Each structure stands twice: as structure tokens, then as C-alpha cells.
DNA sequence: TGTCTTTTGGCGCTCAGTGCCATTATATTA
DNA sequence: TAATATAATGGCACTGAGCGCCAAAAGACA
């Protein structure tokens, strides 16, 4: 597990993803996402606009921060689930673990999710990120069921899990005072009630 | 049920949504969505670029055609479901009805959905359309359960139903030779299996 | 023929995103 | 100390979506 070797030759970077993220968040929070131009962010960082696009492929990617990296954790968390618990339960637990944050990190996380889930342009872009997240689930499910990840059940579980997570976050951002974990529990319970065939005819 | 009264005074339109859609589809099919500029579409129609934006708010909206109008049907289809069948079943039936197409209309529909579901820019934009679709479901569920449409269960059912529909279309476009209805049945069955609490501990 | 109404479409602008490439800042080597 | 290799920088110019503004066009009707 070697750390990424940063090159010792060549001109050193003048900024970093973290710094860009911090400055951008500040601007987004004060004047809004759509109202903040890449030009302004570059100016605030005293960096060329062109340079920003080397750190983030698009403006829409800035709010996502370390999402890509945390997907690896998510994958591992799923693999860590014991095989003897039901699939639904394993996914449920992994989702909760993935969405657990320290109390100090929570306000920041809330702000990030508000930005992503309430800004139309970011909502749209987020689909492309969610795809990776769903793929992690689909891969796990495919593994457990010994079927291709592109088959019906793995994909359906990926889509449905995302649906659950989005429902949870909508509820959370809407002012529900419960913790994310509690809302996850509620939502998964509600899904089971909703889908329970024994509750109705046919 | 009065038809939309088209004004008899003023300059008559030089084109129509339907015509723009037809010409655009042809261009999208031959050279791809991203590779087709609004300029080209305008030229093909012999119309000003500016005019296109009066018929469609964005390039991304062109492939959606009559989606908005068909949402009204979807709402009605849900309301037409008998109240005595379980919620899950009612939503299931309405989704199938909403996605029933004549055999002649199917190839066109497949092409449209391929475009929407496989073009990154359209995938992203589609979220904004799905929101309306989910709202129709959430409203119906809220009505049946007598709770606010913004509460947990209606929203969760909206999200999960969308998840199901997307799974179905992915499977369909992936080459599954079954009909959309058959795949809907399969997918809903798989969801019930997945979520069934009696299948596992806890 | 003139007036009223509505659509059209050209013009000019903003902003995201991209290819190109000379410049800059550092470490290493001679 | 000076030359060199390397990698990041950032300016420039371009494309394409989208939008505000407004004069011109095209019919209906009096």
C-alpha cells in the first residue's frame, strides 16, 4: 500500500484539489453555485482559469471532493459484510457505514449534500457519479449471486439502493432531526413493507 | 376537453415541435447527439437558431418529445387503479400501462430511449424530467396513504419506482428479447424477493 | 391600405470547456 | 555556478449552449 509518489522534478503545483475545493465552497456558499464562475474561483485562488480545469474536469465536479476515493472504501465495506447475512441486510449495513460521519464533519457534509441535491445543474451531473456508486453495489451483488454484474438483479439492487439513499438524504435535508442511520433504518423498513407480497393479494 | 386554441392573428409559426423533433432525430441518429449542433438543426430546418430555443428550452429537451403531456395520462392511469388492490400492485400496473406501446411505435420508442439512456449529457439532464415523473407517483401514494407528498413513504416509492423503471429499460436496451411488460414483471418480482424480510434473519 | 398581433431571427453577449504552446519553477547534473 | 531535463502553469483563441433585446416579417381584419 504505497502512497502516491509525488514527482520531485518539474515545476511544483501552485494549488491542490483540496485548496480549490475549500475556496470554491466558500464562494458557492456566499453567492451560490450558478452565480460563481470559474473565472472568479481562479481569481480567488490567484491561479489561471485554465489551471482549474486540470484539477477538476468540470465545475460540476468540484463539490464532489473525495467521492471517487471513498468508493474504494465502500467496496471494501461491502466485502467485509459476513456472507451469512441476507443480501438486503448486507447492503443496508454497508450503506449506513458509507454514510457515517463524525459529528465535526457533519455540518460540512450537510452543506455539500445540500449543494449537490438542490442545485439543478449538480443534480443532473450527479447521475454520472451515482453510476459508479451503483456499479460497486452491482459488482458485490453479482459476486454473491454468482451472476454477471450486468444482469437484472445486480443492476436492480444498485438502482434500488440508490433510490433508498436519495430518499434518505431528501428526508434528512428536509429537516428530519433523526440521524442518517435512523432514517436509513426507517426507509428500508418502509421499503420492505411496501414490497411485502404477503400484505396484499396476488 | 377543449383543444388548444391556436391564435388566428399574428405571424404564423414556421415550424413545430414535432417537425423539429423529427429532423433532430434524423441528425442525432446519423451523426450522434453531441456531434450535432443547434446551428446544424436550425440549418436543416431552414430556421434561425434563436427560434429553436423558443420551441425547446435546451438541446437536451428535444429527445423528450411529448413526455410532459404523457405525464397527465400517467397520473390518470394511477387514479384509475382500483383502491382495493395493494399500493405496490397499483403502481406496478400503472407503470406497465405507461410503458405500453404499439408495435409500430416500438422501434421509435427504443431509439428514443437508447438516445436518452446512453448519451451522457442526456442521462444527466434526464434527472430533471424524472423528478416530475416521481412527483406523479408520490402524489398518488400520498393520496392513498393520506400523508403529505413530501413525506418519507411517498418519496421513497417514487424513487424506488423510478429505480425499477430504469432497471427495466437497461435490461431491455441491453438486448433482452422479452417485452417491457414481461421485464417489469420480472423486475418487480425480483425486488420483492430481495426485500422480503422472511427470507432472512433480522 | 393601414393597423394589430404574434412569431421570427439576427446581433451580441456570457460562460463552460478544450487544444495548443510558450513560459516558469524546480531538481539534477556537468 | 551554469546548463539541462522535467512538469506545471496560464495565456490565447476557439466552439457551442443559452439568453436578452429588438427590429423585421407575415398574416388577419377593419
From TrEMBL, chains A, B:
Alphabetically sorted, this entry's keywords are:
DNA-binding, Transcription, Transcription regulation
Molecular function, one GO term:
transcription cis-regulatory region binding
The record's PROSITE patterns line, in alphabetical order, gives: HTH_TETR_1, HTH_TETR_2
The answer to whether UniProt assigns keyword Manganese to this entry is no
- One Pfam family of this chain: TetR_N
Domain HTH tetR-type intervals: 14-74
Question: Which InterPro entries is this protein grouped with?
Answer: DNA-bd_HTH_TetR-type_CS, Homeodomain-like_sf, HTH-type_TetR-like_transc_reg, HTH_TetR, MftR_C, Tscrpt_reg_TetR-type
Q: Which PANTHER family match?
A: HTH-TYPE TRANSCRIPTIONAL REGULATOR RUTR, MYCOFACTOCIN BIOSYNTHESIS TRANSCRIPTIONAL REGULATOR MFTR-RELATED
| Family annotation (NCBIfam families) | mycofact_TetR
Q: What is this protein called?
A: Unannotated protein
Task: Say which species the protein is native to.
Answer: freshwater metagenome
Tell me the organism's taxonomic lineage: unclassified sequences, metagenomes, ecological metagenomes
Amino acid at each position: 500500500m504505497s502512497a502516491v509518489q509525488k514527482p520531485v522534478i518539474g515545476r511544483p503545483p501552485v494549488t491542490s484539489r483540496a485548496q480549490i475545493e475549500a475556496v470554491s465552497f466558500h464562494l458557492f456558499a456566499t453567492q451560490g453555485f450558478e452565480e460563481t464562475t470559474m473565472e472568479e474561483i481562479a481569481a480567488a485562488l490567484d491561479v489561471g482559469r485554465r489551471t482549474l480545469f486540470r484539477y477538476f474536469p468540470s465545475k460540476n465536479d468540484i463539490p464532489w471532493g473525495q467521492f471517487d476515493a471513498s468508493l474504494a472504501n465502500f467496496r471494501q465495506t461491502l466485502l467485509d459484510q459476513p456472507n451469512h447475512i441476507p443480501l438486503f441486510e448486507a447492503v443496508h449495513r454497508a450503506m449506513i457505514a458509507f454514510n457515517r460521519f463524525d459529528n465535526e464533519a457533519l455540518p460540512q457534509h450537510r452543506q455539500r449534500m445540500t449543494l449537490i441535491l438542490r442545485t439543478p445543474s449538480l443534480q443532473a451531473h450527479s447521475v454520472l457519479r451515482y453510476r459508479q456508486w451503483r456499479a460497486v453495489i452491482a459488482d458485490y451483488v453479482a459476486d454473491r449471486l454468482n451472476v454477471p454484474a450486468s444482469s437484472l438483479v445486480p443492476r436492480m439492487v444498485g438502482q434500488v439502493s440508490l433510490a433508498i439513499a436519495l430518499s434518505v438524504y431528501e428526508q434528512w435535508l428536509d429537516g428530519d432531526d433523526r440521524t442518517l442511520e435512523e432514517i436509513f433504518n426507517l426507509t428500508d423498513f418502509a421499503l420492505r413493507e411496501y414490497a411485502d407480497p404477503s400484505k396484499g393479494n396476488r
